[in-house]
Amino acid sequence: MLDEATLEQRLVNLERTVAELKHQISLAPVANNWLEQIIGSISDEQTFMEILEYGKSIRCADKPLDSHNETSEQP
């Protein structure tokens, strides 16, 4: 078991480290909420739907061809 002096020194080190971390956090820039930045940026619903379809086509292009035809090729 650790003696009291060692425990005291470890506690002092922990308190110093926590104080340093708190200071670093207080200096860090505040991150902007990405959702708040894009809300209302697409006011045209038709354009938004086109963007969704475009994203879907990109995701589907990455899938192997076998995954599209798995159910239709089963005996």
Would you write up a description of this structure?
With 75 residues, the protein is mainly alpha-helical. The chain is 68% helix and 0% strand. The termini are far apart. The model has no long low-confidence stretch (mean pLDDT 82).
Briefly summarize what is shown.
The chain contains four helices and no strands. It has helices at residues 4-27, 34-38, 45-61, 65-69.
Question: How do the helices and strands line up, and which of them pair or pack?
Answer:
Elements: H1 4-27, H2 34-38, H3 45-61, H4 65-69
Q: In angstroms, what is the radius of gyration? A: 28 Å
- Tally the helices: 4
Describe the main β-sheet briefly. none
Enumerate the spans where pLDDT stays under 50 for 5 or more consecutive residues. none
Protein structure class: mainly alpha
Return the string of H and E elements: HHHH
Strand content: under 5%
Average predicted confidence as pLDDT: 82
- Straight-line distance between termini: 70 Å
Give the helix proportion (percent range).
55-70%
Extended strand count: 0
